[in-house]
Amino acid sequence: MDDGDNGEESRKLDDFFAQFAYQKGGDPPQPSDRSLGRRPLKKARTDRSGGSGSPAKPKAEKLTVQMEEEEEEEEASAPKMPKAADKGSSVLSERDRLREKNFSIDVDSLEPLDDSAAPDNWKEIVSKLQEYRYENAATVDDFHAFLVGLQSDGVSTPHFTALVACILSVQCRDEVALRAMQTLKDRSPGGDVNVDFIYEAPLDDIEDCVRQCNFYKTKAKHIKECGRLIKERYRSQVPSDANSLKELPGVGPKIAYLVQSVSFGQQDSGIVVDTHAHRVANRLKWCNTKHAEQTRKALEGWVPVDLRIPLPLLLIGLGQNICVTRSPKCGECPISSLCPSAGKISSPS
């Protein structure tokens, strides 16, 4: 990605944050000359498939090492995330407020659920990660702030809007998922991506809004079907239990626990483990697993409940900024002196 692309990508993300800040009482946004315009949805067409019945849930796409590397190369070439208080908009202030809350936990006062399963130096590692992440933002912080902010953003179905954003974020950079959400907001009545909007929208219009995301056709189908199921089965209310969430199209354990923990605020929810958290936890030798779900179960065996929301943010942020798939920046890592893999990773792992 060249410098021109970086500038355009940064501008779009700034436009999104400016609009979000304005909705929370900040200064009116100053749109750039190529800001996303509002285009009304086409009238929904009935029986688009030519038959009845809901579409089958597609098989989950597997994230390959090559995809991880391409995603991280784009992250590395994108504009650097500002540190705390570098910008004055209310959305960034909300992001930094949440970072202060999540990364200021007295780790020494916590006890693991199982002493025998906990790493010997976990408290020292978490403390150092908190110090680093308190001063160094990552894109996961903006996505987290977006999900939390929906509760006070005036949307009619904040849990559903959060669910849509989480589905878009799968195997996709956070800022790209947020831009797709902005496009959906631009197309929706009153900027409200709610159950009724998705239920009534034609599938090809949803695809058009989210086409910048990986697997956008599949994600659009999942979002459309989620809207139908939640409206018809759950009376437009997103279920808060993980088992019901995981029955929805496109919702696996990570998305279910992300919605449950962040959108619903259930601190004792399952730990959110994505490819970054999975990679970092294995490099720290906190587990020896091949898949993220195995890592989640291993971490839940000892991680204190008070760390179930902050720990993924710590690990994911480190994975996005420092502990990348290929050639991690061990010389810049705040926990390199405590990491058994430091200086030993020269190929994808």
In short:
The protein has 349 residues and is an all-alpha fold. It is built from 15 helices and no strands.
Description:
Residues 1-95 are annotated as: Disordered. The protein is globular. The longest helix is centred in the N-terminal third of the chain and has 21 residues, at 3-23. The chain has helices at 3-23, 65-77, 90-102, 122-135, 139-149, 158-169, 174-187, 195-200, 203-210, 216-233, 242-246, 253-263, 275-283, 292-300, 310-321. The chain has a domain at 89-104 and 111-338: Endonuclease III, domain 1 (Orthogonal Bundle). It is built from 15 helices and no strands. The two termini are 24 Å apart. Mean pLDDT is 82; it is low at 1-12, 20-70 and 76-88. It is an all-alpha fold and 349 residues long.
Question: Tags for this entry?
Answer:
349 residues; globular
Shape: globular
The CATH superfamily of the domain at 89-104 and 111-338 is identified as Hypothetical protein, domain 2
In the CATH hierarchy, what is the class of the domain at 89-104 and 111-338? Mainly Alpha
Number of strands: 0
For the termini, the CA-CA separation is 24 Å
CATH architecture of the domain at 89-104 and 111-338: Orthogonal Bundle
- Spans of at least 5 consecutive residues with low confidence: 1-12, 20-70, 76-88
**Proportion of β residues?**
under 5%
The helix tally amounts to: 15
Largest sheet: none
Give the ordered list of helices and strands: HHHHHHHHHHHHHHH
CATH topology of the domain at 89-104 and 111-338: Endonuclease III, domain 1
Structural class, judged by helices and strands? Answer: mainly alpha
Radius of gyration: 20 Å
Q: What share of residues is helical? A: 40-55%
Mean pLDDT metric: 82
Determine the oligomeric state from the structure: single chain
